Amino acid sequence: MSKPTNTRSPSTPHRTSQGNRDFRKRTQREARPAAPPQSRSVPVAGDATAQAAIILKEGREKSLLRRHPWVFSGAIERIDGTPVSGDTLQVVDAAGKFVAQAAYNAGSQITARVWSWNPEEAIDTAFFRRKIATAIAGRAGLNLAKDSSGMRLIHAESDGLPGLIVDQYGDVLVMQIGSAGIEHWRAQIADILQELCNPACIYERSDSDSRTLEGLELRCGVLRGTLPDTVEVIEHGLRFRVDVADGQKTGFYLDQRDNRKLTETLAEGRDVLNCFCYTGGFSLYALRGGAKSVLSMDASGEALHIATDNLTRNNLDESRAEWQEADVFVALRKLRDQGKTFDMIILDPPKFAPTAAFAEKAARGYKDINLLGFKLLRPGGLLFTYSCSGGISEELFQKIIAGAALDAGVDAQIVRHLHASGDHPVLLSFPEGAYLKGLLLRVAD
Ligand code: SAH
Questions:
Q1: Which residues are catalytic?
Q2: Is the C-beta atom of 301 inside 6 A of ligand 1?
């Protein structure tokens, strides 16, 4: 099987929701699995009396041999035995040779996700303890989050645990499950996290839309311990309130930690516009970095409420900060019509393209806001622009931005290519893990 041509994302997208369900649909900002390259096909049932196994079609083991951890339904010749979703099955090639051990999901187009490439490795509680301990220890050794109490402890496929996201906010862990395999081991995983991290609370936020694609029901609530009234995360010494139960994704966008820090270092003396500000992440960094003014916009009043609370928490100068509840697409046009300009603009929108199928429409959205952004920048100004769409590749994103600059009539240079922080590692054999891409651009004087 050739590797899927469309871009897909980690199975447990972490950029999700607002409290209100309808709004949630509009505010999602992370990628989720796309439709597979082939039309939907239900694997054929094989010999029910044989040992449960997934038998691949001729030649369709190739992507697995390159250690890509997904088995698409279209690659499957037949399924022997009578497995149920969540079971661990052997995956074998057309000749019956072992390829992998994987978690089965009858209800997903990704019919299996690989646990292990080793036929001897037992997939049991000890296996999950090893994987989780390795993910945590790996991060500890990399000095990823100086002066911070927030960390993505487990990044799904990239940490060898397809479908599992665990974010840490101080002594609260938020767990998001996006696969039948992890669903099956949910209680054991919670016990292991409790044992290894000893948090005050493990909260489950299994409410991302991708669960529906996996045939899993949405579920949220306390899994272990008690959720404190207020959860706070410290990031590079800045304090942010995290709405674990109702905030977007697991409550905070840890993936932008390094990029926010970079913003701080470049903000001094600048008039800054922060679009899609959520709870004020980039805004607070810009203020601490000495920005002359920071205008922040978001469509979510609840997010802005937390943002202003965060400003107070950090004793930052309120007179330099302005908050607007607005649709950025409309607000940017208004600013343009008013002749407003800025020295630094941040565009960190929700995902416009959950899958490659949405790429064209998404491209129009990215081009629109970036074109307006370029027009609002003063000569020599800086644009931080991001896409967290799994359906938009880094290369395509750069092309869209180039088109926007051209149409805006500005020359701009790429100063930096930006990505998610290091606690969101990307497994080399799973490029879909690199959902967040960004550019720091400087427009000509
Ligand atoms: N930069 C933020 C994360 C942004 S997430 C941080 O560092 O924390 C994307 C945000 O876009 C969400 O807060 C969502 O409420 C907001 N949003 C979605 N559509 C919007 C629109 N059309 N106009 C304004 N904000 C929007």
A1: 388
A2: no
Q: Does 26 sit in the ligand 1 pocket, CB within 6 Å?
A: yes
Classify residue 442 by its DSSP letter.
Answer: E
Q: By three-state DSSP, how is residue 8 classified?
A: coil
Nearest-atom number in ligand 1 for the CA of 348 is 1
What is the value of pTM for the model shown?
A: 0.91
Q: Using alpha carbons, select from 304, 287, 301 the residue that is nearest to residue 344.
A: 287
- Residue among 24, 275, 298, 351 to mutate when testing ligand 1 (max atoms within 8 A of CB): 298
Residues 79, 65: contact at Cβ < 8 Å?
no
Task: Count Cβ atoms below 10 Å from residue 378 Cβ, excluding itself.
Answer: 15
Protein residue whose Cα sits closest to atom 10 of ligand 1 = 276
* Ligand 1 near 329 CB (within 6 A): yes
Beta strands in 31-97 (DSSP E): 53-56, 70-72, 76-80, 88-92
* Residue closest to 46 by CA, chosen among 94, 116, 114: 94
CB 203 within 8 A of CB 227: yes
Residue with CA closest to ligand 1 atom 9: 350
Does the C-beta of 425 come closer than 6 Å to ligand 1?
Answer: no
- Mean pLDDT, consecutive 10-residue stretches, the chain (445 aa), reads 34 34 37 42 80 97 98 97 97 98 96 98 98 96 89 98 98 97 98 98 94 92 98 97 96 97 98 98 98 98 98 96 98 98 98 84 96 98 96 95 98 98 97 95 97
Distance CA 15, CA 126 (A): 30
